[in-house]
Amino acid sequence: MASGEKTGASGGPAKEMYGHVKAVNLDQRGRAGLEILGAMQNYIAGTVRDRAKKEFMRDPEGAELAQHWKERHNEPWPERIAKARTVAERSAAYRYERLMQRYVGEQVYVRGVPAAERRRKEAEVYYAAPVPSAGGTLELDPSIELPKWYTETEWHLMPGGWDGYDLMGITMGSGVGPYVFARGGYAAVEANDDIRQQRVDVVKQFPKKSYGRIYEPGCGGTSTLYAVHKTFPEAELIGSDYSPHLLRQGLLSADKLGFKVTLKQRDAADTREPSESMDGVIMYALQHEMPIDVNIAALKEAFRILKPGGDLVMSDPPPFAAVDPLQAVVLDWDTDHRDEPYFSITREYEWEKVMKDIGFVNTEAYALGAQGYPWIVRGSKPL
Amino acid sequence: MVKPPKQPYTGDEMMDNVIRMNAELMSEVWILRDRVTILEHMLQEKGIVERKALDDFVPSGDLAKELLNERDALVERVVGGAWMQGFSVESLVEKAKK
Lengths: 383, 98
Known about the structure:
B: 4 helices, 68% helix
């Protein structure tokens, strides 16, 4: 066919597809069923949410909240958010947008898992095929103790979590990533945002022109490390995660894309790397997945492994104080409705101040995008 | 097990359900439309049916009658669905004759 791709195993050069290399082509039902979810999410997060925002601002209570949103220091964030949520829920557009967000959030797995399953044979062929090594390694640690906060959460409504289904890499890399996430419009990601470009933009927040060794805790499928490689091709890349599935997928992606990574199954707060051994540390979309004490421990660990003068760049959804009230309600919603138990609590903090308390200098926080996302917090270890 | 939402988003569980059904139907419409478009493309590529011929084709005779009946039945099922809550054996048998 002149204008199509063969079904089954995805041929041709490796393509980085939103967290994984695209391994197989889904069948027509799988592809089209996910593509329409991408279209729905894009529309609701754009057009329908804009309508909800207008309705919020037309409400006198909403307008008053927006006017003084950042000045209500004496009012704890949960109370402030609850007031804004009450106003938001008066809007039919808001309620509809949230229902459809939830629907798409569920359906990406309801459709994506069977779609991957229908390609099991092709996936097995893909995984069994020899891949030339780019020199990377993977060290799993069967003795590692996974905390309850990690094992008892079905992140993003993903049934069984990352390690609950052996073809989740196919579901995400060959389905949900390219067909749904690519359209934007979920969590802090705005409709039409290019999440691949956002990773590159975040990596560019490292202040130096070149780096020797860069570490990423919670590296997942190495998408961010790939963006680091593209930006700093000379850097040695080391990553860690709890998930064996993601780490295996990450090494495979790196081999397919031809960049070297050293991957280890580690706790972000206990990397077992030597002190002062890294020139840079990057944390991408990790903070909102971890409880506060674990976040602080992970930052202290980053400080420990950084060389004097080394840099830390973090990117996560913006804090509540950096967005308008309706956007804060939208961010808070993920906590209870998309199985993100630490989303809200981590948005209450000013992390640049936490970093300063740990010992980082030149700490700063700022947004790259119009709605506060990607949000950057960065700092350096003193010389 | 991913748990269902604790409360309906619209404030009415049935309204949530109807909206979910509508989204599911829209998805099915799209999946079929995607497939038909690919089918037309492949038929044209293989030189079997030109897409223009499909556009220009006007059903007549038995085919036109078949489409008319199917179309009317669809309208009755969908548009009339709200009022079709009472039925008897006779009404159902009558329906089968249509």
